[in-house]
Design the sequence.
């Protein structure tokens, strides 16, 4: 049965989507894992990093998206509920046979208010994804920059969570805030989830205060039980360009510094899971 | 009476907070305007860009924050509701006499669910800020990277909104999504708000596809009624360092490229308002 890992961080723009997409691509291509990537963000960034806008429009029209899974798109509402397997895009990137995607939809923008009165609103996804877990080794959930209903659905169904973190001042404030709010959620939703670790991303090695921030966080007593991945994802513009061609970095330019970093991250990620 | 402007963008990490804080600082210091900056984001990034964590903790304990204004912090709940003026930090930065701040609180993290069943949940802030508008020339609202209840409260009370936008592929997708979802909100909440414009931020002039993205957006027919500010905010690490000393850029290092950009933005911002 697949292990489910959510990528979460309330701070925006730190590289959650970039990590989710490229990690999934290396795990599927280089490590031959069967991976399902799930886009929980109404901005559809993971989806549009792997498929063109036209292709996404066609797929959402004919097969559906996470808006159907979370039942806020009433086009396909049926009595027994929408089947999650219907909207899985198999082999979303032809060159990477083991990578499937469930795309998102901008209708998830007001999900919290749409589902506010619904009993068990944070369990809808978990119940449905359960039915397909036996088809995969790993499920990665790309979450929006908050801890609301979409992210709660992902966390409720997850075994682990991973925290991408940019080593700058405003992002580093977010780590203790995230731990605090996750503790609150864990108590209320009673889910068992463990932290797989923190991945420093968009790192500029030559900038003094990036180094200082990483040192400070690693030596901070309140984070001593957190695992900080040794692999650092550098700021590398090629990572920002790859989505324009709907390709992960290992297809767009496997010699770029960003590509090497994700190749190392995939190895470290697997060895962390196996511990 | 003050004009109210919200800085909004669903995409995370594009520079909403950096724009809100530094624009407010230039408008108050160089242009002698009386400015109230309001932090709607549970990450408290605007607050901690202008006050230290210790000072923030002391203020939230004794005077309150936006969590009190939006009535999710029950320490200070009273019959007639919490008075917004009680939690305004006057002259938050001593060297800039005209700049006041209402700090945020991490208790806003689950605001949407806390207020979901409350009648008029998106008007709570507007009713309260109305009472202090005569004390200011401008009110700037720094919003979280979503369009949920906190942002709806800001929009409902605003005359204009400003969209910071990083000229990269994933951010540029967000502009049409934002316009679409704002249209939906405007119809449902019936607020009158106009777009003051789009400010390109975190721009790297030497990167080809930043130039291409800006050209593409400006010439896109669906955005022909949008105003694109001529001032570009460059990627400038000094802007990321200034918050470590709880100072806006005009105090931290007024000769930095980021400082010059915000000086120009403040001028263009005022002339846009006066049109
Ligand atoms: N290591 C990197 N080097 C260069 N650019 C990067 C890197 N990581 C991410 N980016 C770029 O920075 C922007 C933000 O990254 P991304 O969208 O992955 O972050 P996010 O945390 O998912 O954002 P959001 O909070 O909006 O979901 C994107 O344009 C992306 O292409
Ligand atoms: N022009 C710039 N040059 C360099 N760094 C910048 C610039 N603008 C913002 N930053 C840095 O990038 C990070 C993200 O910016 P900021 O927090 O202002 O964005 P935001 O849109 O408010 O993010 P969020 O979506 O989390 O609220 C911060 O660490 C900030 O210091
Ligand atoms: Mg993302
Ligand atoms: Mg912000």
Sequence:
């Amino acid at each position: 049965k697949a292990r489910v890992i959510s990528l979460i961080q309330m701070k925006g723009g730190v590289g959650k989507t970039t990590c989710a997409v490229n990690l999934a691509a290396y795990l599927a291509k280089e490590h031959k894992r069967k991976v399902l990537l799930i886009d929980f963000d109404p901005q559809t960034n993971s989806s549009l990093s792997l498929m063109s806008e036209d292709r996404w429009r066609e797929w959402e029209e004919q097969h559906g998206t996470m808006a159907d899974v979370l039942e806020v798109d009433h086009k396909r509402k049926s009595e027994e509920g929408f089947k999650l397997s219907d909207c899985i895009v198999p082999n979303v990137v032809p060159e990477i046979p083991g990578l499937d995607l469930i795309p998102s939809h901008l209708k998830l923008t007001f999900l919290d208010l749409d589902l506010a009165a619904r009993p068990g609103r944070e369990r809808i996804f978990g119940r449905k994804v359960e039915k397909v877990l036996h088809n995969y080794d790993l499920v990665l959930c790309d979450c929006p920059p908050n801890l609301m209903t979409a992210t709660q659905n992902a966390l409720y169904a997850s075994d682990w969570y991973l925290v991408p973190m940019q080593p700058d001042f405003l992002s580093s404030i977010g780590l203790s805030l995230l731990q605090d709010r996750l503790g609150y959620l864990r108590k209320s939703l009673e889910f068992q989830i463990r932290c797989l670790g923190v991945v420093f991303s968009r790192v500029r090695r030559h900038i003094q205060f990036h180094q200082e921030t990483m040192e400070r966080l690693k030596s901070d007593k309140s984070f001593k039980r957190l695992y900080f991945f040794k692999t650092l994802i550098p700021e590398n513009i090629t990572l920002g360009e790859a989505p324009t061609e709907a390709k992960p970095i290992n297809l767009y330019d496997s010699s770029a510094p960003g590509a090497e970093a994700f190749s190392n991250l995939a190895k470290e990620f697997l060895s962390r899971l196996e511990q």
